[in-house]
Amino acid sequence: MDHFIVKDLMAQGVDVGIKVLGAIIVWIVGSWLIRFTNNMLTRSLADKKIDETLVKYSVSGLNILLKLILIVAIFSYLGVQTTTIAGLLAGVGLAIGAMWGGMMANLAAGAFLVFLKPFKVGDFISAGDVTGTVTEIGLFSTTLNSPDNVRTFVGNNKIFSGNIQNFTANPYRRVDLKVRLHHDVDPAKAIALLKERLARIPHVLSEPAPDVEILEFAMGDPVLAVRPYVRNDHYWQVYFDTNRMIRESFGEAKFPAPSYPWWPEAPEK
């Protein structure tokens, strides 16, 4: 009797092992087919000159749908009843809904971001307390690469519900710098010198022309606003070049250093 039980258990174990092995093969093959389908769809949409943002969003949605179908197919292959699968998915859905109540909000916000287009893939933006270049707008989150090359994922709802700054939308932007003069330096002479030197910096636009004016006074010293205009791709290079130019120009002109010390105001008692 025991011999027959052992043989039966061994047979069942072999059957289960074969099914598990088959499920693994189905998962590997199915995952490859999903990647192949996604790549084909991406190339097809790209050939039709469809916006890259919409392409990535559509492919992301298709990827999730196909993965869900694959999981259901594997459960069916293993002999799990369809009603059981539906109940399991419903339970998982409720658990996910309880843990992440904002999931649907992120999904809806992602759709609005794609179709309202406050930004697109490749734009340099500031949103959701993150500044960087958009690499993907997904179903639930947007991926950005920060200037120091850190990949950051931000929930779509956090982006959509806050302020969005798109630095790429306009053809040029302004570099804002301040420079403080000694009170004995003639501001008109300093302004003329800076305007002449700004014109020599590569990538500084001549139209609109750079602004150099007295902005304010600090302890009697004039403070100049130095504001060249530049194409978006050259912003930081012009920023650094302008700072260096100010230091070198004032040194060559032998302008005295601003009045010192200048300390913080005493705290209120």
3D architecture notes:
This protein is α+β, with helices and mostly antiparallel strands and 269 residues long. It has seven helices and ten strands. It has helices at residues 2-47, 52-77, 82-99, 103-116, 156-160, 187-198, 235-252; strands at residues 124-127, 130-137, 141-145, 151-155, 164-166, 172-174, 177-180, 211-218, 221-227, 229-231. Strands 4-3-2-1-5 form a five-stranded antiparallel β-sheet. It has a three-stranded antiparallel β-sheet with strand order 7-9-8, with helices on one face. The chain has a two-stranded antiparallel ribbon with strand order 6-10. The longest helix has 46 residues, at 2-47. The termini are far apart.
Give unreliable regions as ranges.
262-269
Quantity of strands, as a count: 10
Mean pLDDT: 81
- Give me the Rg, rounded: 31 Å
Largest sheet: 5 strands, antiparallel
Helix content range of the residues, please? Answer: 40-55%
* Separate helix tally: 7
In which order are the strands of the major sheet placed? 4-3-2-1-5
> Which descriptor suits the 3D outline?
elongated
Summing up helix and strand content along with how strands pair, one would put the structural category as alpha+beta
Order of helices and strands: HHHHEEEEHEEEHEEEH
Short descriptors:
single chain, 269 residues, alpha+beta, 5-stranded antiparallel sheet, 3-stranded antiparallel sheet, elongated
Quick description:
52% of the residues lie in helices and 19% in strands. With 269 residues, it is an alpha+beta fold.
